[in-house]
Amino acid sequence: MPRHVAVIMDGNGRWAKKRLLPRVAGHVKGVELVREMVRACLERGIGYLTLFAFSSENWRRPQDEVTLLMQLFVKALEQEVEKLGRNGVRLRVVGDLSRFEPRLQELIRRAEETTAGNSRLELTIAANYGGRWDIMQAVNRMAAADPVRCGAWSEADLEPYLAMNYAPEPDLFIRTGGEERISNFLLWQLAYAELYFTPTLWPDFDTAEFDKAIQSFQKRERRFGRTSEQLTEAPDA
Ligand code: IPE
Ligand code: IPE
Ligand code: MG
Question: Which ligand minimizes its atom distance to the CA of 7?
Answer without folding.
Answer: 2
